[in-house]
Amino acid sequence: MGRPRSLPRRLPARDSADSGTDSHPARDPALPGPGLPPGAAMHVAVPPARYPDLTGSPGAAAALVPAGQQAQAAPLLGAPWKWGDPRRSCRYQRVSELCSNIWIWKGLACMAMVTVILVTILLVKITLDLRAIERIPAVTGKCIPCPGSWMWFRGQCYYFSKEIQDWDASKEFCSSHNATLAVIKEPSHLETIHSYKGNEDYWLGLRKGGKGWQWVDGSPFTNTTIQLENDGQNLNCAFLSMKQIVTVDCTSLRYWICIKESR
Asked: 24, 129, 184, 186: most buried by Cβ count inside 10 Å?
C-alpha cells in the first residue's frame, strides 16, 4: 500500500481585534455585496469629519495658522488692524475718496445756487428797466425837445416852479424862457396839469382886463373847460386850485406853470 496522504493542517483563526486588520479582504464599494442582485450599488455610510470648534477663540484659531502667516491673517482671526497694514490703508483710501467726492458735489451745488441767484437778479433788473422805458413818452423821429427840469407831454414842454412869486414876475419868467403862463383851452391840457401839480396852487396865464377875462395869448376865456370862481372886484388874476380856477389879487404869491411848444 502506498503511503497515506497527509491532510493539510488547518491554521487557527486569527482574532481580527488582536491583529488590527479585518479578516475579510477589502471589497470594492462599486461591486454588489453578497445577496444583492447584479447592478445594485452598495452605499457605505462615512462618518463626517470632525473639526475643532474655534468659535470665540482667536487663540485656538491662531494656533492652526503658521507663525509666518499670522500677521497677514490677523484681520480674519478677529485681531485689530495695525498701522501700516495694507488693508487699513485701503480702507482709509476709500473713505478719503468718498469724502472728496462729497466736497465736489457740494461745490457744484453752491455754484448752481449762485448761478440761479445771479440770473434772477439780472432778470429783475431787466424787468425794471423795461418798465422804466415804458413810462418815457415815445417821440417819433426826434429826441425830447424840452430843456432840463421841463417836462414833455403831447408836443408841449411844461415847467412847474419850485418857488413862489406874484403874477407879473411869474409871467416875466416864462417870457424869458420863450414860454407863457399856462393856457388851458382843452380838457387834455387840464388833465396833464392836474396829474403833475399835486396839491399846490399855480398861477395861470389868465387875467381880467378891459375886455373881461382873457388868456395871455389874447383869446377870451370860456367856462366850457373849467369853472371860474370868485369873480370879484380887484381880483384880476387867476390860479388853478384842485378842481377849479380861483380869482385873487395879482400881488399874492403863488407857484406858476410855464408852457411852450416843443421843437
From this structure: 184
Q: Of 234, 162, 160, give the one whose Cα is nearest residue 204.
A: 160
Enter the C-alpha cell of residue 3. 503511503
Nearest to 192 by CA among 240, 146, 255: 240
d(CA 122, CA 105): 26
Instruction: Give pLDDT tens digits for 228-246.
Output: 776 667 789 999 988 788 8
* Residue ranges covered by each domain of the chain: 72-136, 151-261
Local structure of 26: helix, strand or coil: coil
pLDDT tens, residue by residue, 14-61 = 554 444 444 455 555 555 555 555 555 555 555 555 555 555 555 555
Taking the mean position of all CA atoms in its chain, how far away is CA 85?
A: 47
151-261 domain in CATH 3.10.100.10?
yes
pTM reported for the whole predicted model: 0.45
